[in-house]
Write the structure tokens for this entry.
Amino acid sequence: MADQMTVQVITPGGICYEHHANFVLLSTVDGEMGVMPHMIPTIASLRIDELKVRRVDDEEHVDWISVNGGIVEVRNNLVTIVADSAERDRDIDVTRAERAKRRAENELQEAEKQSDIDAVKRAEVALHRALNRLNVSGHK
């Protein structure tokens, strides 16, 4: 029990994930970061990417979570991720994510035609989020 930590993913809707783990892999704005029990206190900004959690109940059990940016705080064997939105692989509606991808691709094309830099950036973020959700859903 001593070599584990609690992982929480919190969104505006509340806690969407909470389990004990012995390893977490996440993507910060500065690169990938692995978190293990007894890590020094850390705070980092997250990129839109997947979160990998190796749970303690089964060495082969890995949970995959789509995280749309946010922050992570590691302190006293508690890994807290605060994100605007997050979804576990098993909860992702693939059809909805594919529609969001197509919509973002169309918006990106229109914004590029009109040379609307702000609209291009918004469409690129929406596309990145949709692709991340589709990637994470493939881990089911």
